[in-house]
Amino acid sequence: MASAAEQLAANLNFGAFQKATELHKRIGFTLIAMVIYRLGTYLPIPGIDPVAFAQAFQGQSQGILGMFNMFSGGAVERMAIFALNVMPYISASIIVQLLQTVYPPWEKLKKEGGEAGRKQLNQYTRYLTVVLALFQSAGIAFGLQSSPGLVVEPGPFFLISTIVTLTGGTLFLMWLGEQITSRGVGNGISLIIFAGIVAVLPRSVWQLFQQAQVGSIQAWVLFAMLGLAVLVILAIVFMERSQRRLLVQYPKRQQGNRIVGGESSFLPLKINTAGVIPPIFASSLLLLPATVMGFLATADLPGWLQWMPGVVGQLQHGQPMFMVFYGALIIFFCFFYTSIVFNPEETAENLRKYGGFLPGIRPGKRTAEYLDFVLTRLTVIGAAYITAVCLLPEMLVTFMNAPAGARALGGTSILIVVSVTMDTVAQIQSHLLAHQYEGLIKKSKLRGGRR
After folding, report:
1. How far apart are CA 405 and CA 221, in angstroms?
2. Whether 125 contacts 93, CB under 8 Å
3. Residue 375, pLDDT above cutoff 60
4. In 3-state terms, what secondary structure has residue 254?
5. How far apart are CA 395 and CA 388, in angstroms?
């Protein structure tokens, strides 16, 4: 028998959406924020020769900067004020979350601090974002100035203005993402990355059609890539909606003259608990050192640093070292982020507190061990699936000579687009359900008053 929530979800229609005025405001705010973000990707930083920079970028567009450009919605190839995007914030989040597991004061703040502790850790993340953004923007500024012909008037003023502009752009996007999360729909940071990828995708697909038109690639190869992209999307939707349901029972108990309880429910465990975070984190960690080493590699390095250009070359798209590091980081963050999102001990304690238990398993420690057992095996499947999806286009381009545009039709970009779309739609449905519940409560009160 369907639950009340499932029955309400089945009855969702355009009329219910039309009446949800609060949801209209949230969607409107989100759309305005996305428009502001897209406008910022077209505003270049001062002092750059756009023609010379576009020519210089073409030689790096298939490398790690091309991946950075995809996440930023084309802001890197235009060297816009949002060129750094939210990558410093993501890197700062990774570092803070890692330190929460090894640094005792922060671990205590996370476990015992409650809402105040969470706000304090978020503040540390913001401070670290400023530091990383300053570091990355300084590397970009010095790298641009050291390249002949890219800067109109090199000097201290250009360096300071570039560092301030790029850092300010990242901080503005961090603030904008937080505002979307609290006042809009969906996760703000994920939606900003989503908007950047969606803005670049049509152009990548159009380039593939142009290549097929001039004969650079055969028509059957293009249609095979499009068919593979559809299959990847279907696989992502299937895996993201898959879950293991654990039966939870509640014993009967007497309250006054009534017997209550005896009900059962399900504890859903997703196959991919970490969501889209692992590939984003992995990409961010690969971009940070590769960008810095890329700028250093163009300088006159001392003898003990002559190995850097070779390392930079191995961290480009299609290289075995890139694929190994990328896959390993995705697997690591799948397990790491799952351990942060879902705590078996805390879940088992909450079940015991409210009288729930898993059939055949003793409440408390045994329940926590069983939840950890099930979740670990689900995460193995989820990590294998995410790694396969993200590495598939890399392998096609490297080992089967597929065009570089194949990366736009699969892998990290499609995974982020599909996952963020599903999460945003789920949040919209949650708002509609809440609106319907409020309407039912108001109707029941009116009927009760008439009686």
Report:
1. 12
2. yes
3. yes
4. strand
5. 10
| Residue 357 phi, psi dihedral angles, 5° rounding | -155, 155
Name the CATH superfamily for 217-451.
SecY subunit domain (1.10.3370.10)
Angle between helices 156-183 and 21-40 (to 10 degrees): 170
Predicted confidence (pLDDT) at residue 302 exceeds the cutoff of 60 = no
Q: Give CA–CA dist 222/359, Å, rounded.
A: 52
The separation between CA 273 and the C-alpha centre of its own chain, rounded to angstroms, equals: 13
Domain ranges of the chain: 21-216, 217-451
User: Each residue of 422-446: pLDDT tens digit?
Assistant: 888 888 887 777 766 665 555 555 5
Biggest CA pair distance of the chain: 90
CA dist 112 and 83 (Å) reads 38
pTM for the complete prediction? Answer: 0.78
pLDDT above 80 for 286 = no
Domain 21-216 sits in CATH 1.10.3370.10:
yes
Q: How far is CA 123 from CA 113, 127, 146, 178, 410, in A?
A: 14, 6, 35, 12, 35
Torsion from C-alpha of 130, 133, 134, 137, nearest 10 degrees: -160
CA distance 137 to 82: 11
The tokens for 216 are: 């650079």
DSSP string for residues in 401-450: ---GGGGGGSTHHHHHHHHHHHHHHHHHHHHHHHHHHHHHHHHHHHHHHH
- DSSP state, 45? P
Q: Among candidates 424, 427, 446, which has minimal Cα distance to 435?
A: 427
Region 398-423 average pLDDT = 73
Name residues whose C-beta falls within 8 Å of residue 317's C-beta, 6 or more positions apart in sequence: 62, 63, 64, 66, 67, 394, 397, 404, 407
Tokens (6 digits) for 238: 């299937």
